[in-house]
Amino acid sequence: MQLNQFLILSAFLFCTGVYGILARRNAVLVLMSVELMLNAVNINLVAFSAFSNAVSGQVFALFVITVAAAEVGVGLAIVLLIYRNVHTPDLDAVDQLRG
Amino acid sequence: MIAQNVAFWIVALSMAGAAVGVVRTRNVVHAALYLVVVLGGAAAQYILLAAEFVAWVQVLIYIGAVVIIFLFGIMLTRAPMQSETALDNDQRWPALVVAVFLLGVLIVLLVDAFGDQTIRLDDELLATGRTGNVGSSIFRQYVVPFEVVSMLLLAALVGAVAIARRD
Fold it and tell me: CA B104 to CA B109: how far, in whole Å?
C-alpha cells in the first residue's frame, strides 16, 4: 500500500476538524472537532510506524489517545461550568473578556 | 495487496463522509454518532496497518469512553435537538476557505515528499505490531513518559471533578 493514501486521509480528517472548530458555535461540537484532529494525528503516527517498521509510532499513538481522553474530561467539565454560569452551550455567549 | 487497498478505500470513504457529517449535521446527537463511525474507521485502518493493540485501545477508549462522555455532555448542556443554524456561527465560508486551502497545501506537500513510498505488509511488520512488542517498548524504552502520562491522567481526573463540582 502507498504511504500517501494514509497521509492524505489523515490530512482530510485534520482539515475537517479545522473547519469544525472555526465554524461551530456549540462547545461540545468544537470538542468533537478537536477529537477529529487528534485522530488524524494518530493515523499519521501509526502509518509512519508501519512505514519505518518501528514500534515507537504506535507507543506515541497510545500516549496521544491517553492525553485526548484527559482533554475530553477536563474540556467537558469546563463546558458544564460555562453552561451553569451563562445558561447556554454557545461559545459566542462567552465574551466577558471583550473590551 | 489488492484486498487491503479495497478495504482501505471503503473504510476511508466512509470515514471521510462521516467526518463531514460531524461538522455539518444539525443534530448534536447525530454528530456524536457520526464521530463513532470515524473512530471505528480509524480502528479499522490500524488493523490494516498491523497495529492490533492500538486498534483495540481505540475501540475501548474512544468509542467506549470518550463518546459516552460526549453524550453525557450533550445531555447535561441541554443541546438543542432540532435547530436550524444555531449550531454554527457566521464564519462558515471563511472557515471553509481556510480548511480547503490547508488541505490543498498539505496534499501538495505530501505528494511531493512521499510520492511513491510504499508500506510493505510482510511478516516482519506483523511481528513488529504484536501486542507483546508494544508492551515491552512501553515498559522499557518509554517507561518515564508512561509514568508522566499516568500522573497527567490522575491530575486531569481530579481537576475535572474539582471544576465540575457544584458547591
Answer: 8
